[in-house]
Amino acid sequence: MLPFGFDNTYARDLPGLYVAWKPTPAPAPQLLYFNEALATELRLDAPALGGPEGAALFAGNALPDGAEPIAQAYAGHQFGGFSPQLGDGRALLLGEVIDRAGRRRDIAFKGSGRTPFSRGGDGRAAVGPMLREVLIGEAMHALGIPTTRALAVAATGEPVRRDRALPGAVLTRVAASHLRVGTFQYFAARGELDKLRQLADYAIARHDPHLAGTPERHLALLKAVATRQAALIAAWMNVGFIHGVMNTDNMAISGETIDYGPCAFMEAFDPEAVFSSIDHGGRYAYGNQPRIARWNLARLAETLLPLMADAEDEASVQRAVAQVTEVIDAFPALYAEALLQGRRAKLGLSAAVAASDTASIAADMALADDFLAMLHAQSVDFTLAWRRLANAAAGDAAGLRALFAAPDALDAWLARWRDRCALDAPADGPDDIGRAERMRLANPWIIPRNHRVEEALAAASDDGDLGPFDRLLAALRQPHDEAPDLARYAEPAPAAVTACYQTYCGT
């Protein structure tokens, strides 16, 4: 079988943190999607994998040389309730490779059959949800947001039973790692401190090697994860992305977006927007995401406390609690800093103007907040408003004004914005065209519009037609480029469609 050059540190270094398992063979493998560029990046034989041999491999019928498939153990808080055992119920980590940039990457199956962690599920996945992972993951990658990515999707040739029979598929996912907050919770909840320590030191060696062996490395790990998560959530917020299921088992230590289940991109701006069919209370609404990230980090901190303190020494415990509390309490400021950086780029503003001046920072945040408040009040499309603001920077505000039913408030805001932009003007005059171009790179024209995603997935799943999927994927890979033939992908869905739109876990 094709060599992948696996170097499987998780399987080798962490015995007892997983169960060795094999994928369930598929009766009629067919390759629906293959990311040749990603395969090349991973040092794989892309031409060979794109053919029948690849279809058999990516369906789980034949394993590549060196693969050691394992189901990882983890727990998790799901919508606030703790489940002490979740684990890979339909996923298998095949192994790890070193890519062309020297980065260690996991290669894993999703939908490859039952495992010891399946908890009554069938371990399978359907074509539609797996192709959704391709679309959203590639869109996020094109937007520069850290994300897992799909290497392949293979149809299995057999149905899976959900509310109706659906064609089955297996996703092959690539990640910096599949270490989750829930991975730490699994062993902390069992009081297995030796395994917890092994896991923490493994995570440090893999993601923060400069911390390895340092005296307070577990506290430093928490700080590093908090910094990565602050940047990630700020990036989500700046493109209107709603993850939809921010359980602790879906929060990666690496700072990558993982598990594209009931996710969606917001259209009309609304901080309370929820698209997940199972989020009845709005716990994971758009505006709640920073708060939930902090809550999840607090759960990670709890797991690390036993590694930081001697349980028999009250002073040691109190000191550790104070240390992790300081990290959790600092998260809002970390997030605000990352959010401001992104907002300034979206507004076309330079961070060099009084970057350390509290009043100037507050003024820039207020400028962005007031823009969003106008969008909310008039149900204006989030993505188009930011994109057309870039046109306003070049002197054409007509398209932006057309989005507002009552544009008078916008006109007053635009005057404030232009005054702020003037502070950035170079000595030899304003650079409106350059500013507009920079803003277009920060404000995409194309996102995965929910109705276009559903259109593509329905064609693939119900009709076996991958044409709409392929065309949408091509558009999502060039989110900042305006072209007449891609205009349909930039158009918002009708309000009636958005009002009742829901996404599902795909399980």
Show unreliable segments.
none
* Global geometry: globular
The tally of structural domains comes to: 3
Give the strand content: 5-15%
Query: Over the alpha carbons, how many angstroms does the gyration radius reach?
Result: 23 Å
Order of helices and strands: HEEHHHEEEEEEHEEHHHEEHHHHHHHHHH
Give a verbal description of the structure.
By secondary structure, this protein is α+β, with helices and mostly antiparallel strands. The protein has three domains: 9-177, no CATH class; 182-342, no CATH class; 348-492, no CATH class. 45% of the residues lie in helices and 12% in strands. It is built from 18 helices and twelve strands. The strands form four sheets. Strands 2, 6, 7, 8, 9 and 10 form a six-stranded antiparallel sheet that branches. The chain has a two-stranded antiparallel ribbon with strand order 1-3. Strands 4-5 form a two-stranded antiparallel ribbon. The longest helix is centred in the middle third of the chain and has 34 residues, at 314-347. The mean pLDDT is 94.
